[in-house]
Amino acid sequence: LSHAWLFDCWGRLSCRRTKQAYGAKLSSGSTLGVLYLPRRGALYFFADGQCMGPAVTGLDSAGLPLYPLLHLPCYPGEELRLGSPAVAFPTSSPCLLDRAWTRQPHADDRKIIVESYEGVADHRIAGLDPDTTKVWQLKEALAKELRAEVSAASGRVHYNPHQMVLTAEGQELDDDALLSQHGIRFLPNETHFPSIMLSLPH
User: Is 151 helix (H, G, I), strand (E, B) or coil?
Assistant: First the structure.
């Protein structure tokens, strides 16, 4: 699917093996919009009615079908609502599409985002530099957060770093390697590539 473009709401855009920084992280309560203009051959994403700029240009409307995809962050207890937006999107005002957009600071800027295969929640770990942090240190930080979450919910402790498997782009991360040695780095919009996945084998 060469025309399938995924915006993950963490400020990352990807198509097959093409990955780039785009837009910004979205917060709880955000309204997300998607617009495709065939005459421009351009795909746009909106955050609360503001265009974040062209995500992709040069698309051929006569070629393959276009599949804009969204990967929404997992926030426990939240709901996803589909329908007409409460804010207007400038489909009839092309000049608004070209207006300069400024990314606003976000509470999760420069945090290591770890997504879970269990789908319970995404974990956000602050204060870790990929150039100086080893994978094992990230696991320890995750274990501390998980123990706190589980203890608060049930009074029981289930997880420790030895149980964790972290992967990036399908490859398991080596405990003794720096995060940067696996290509993990922060981008200009304060998010990081590649995404990190957590699994907890039973």
Answer: helix
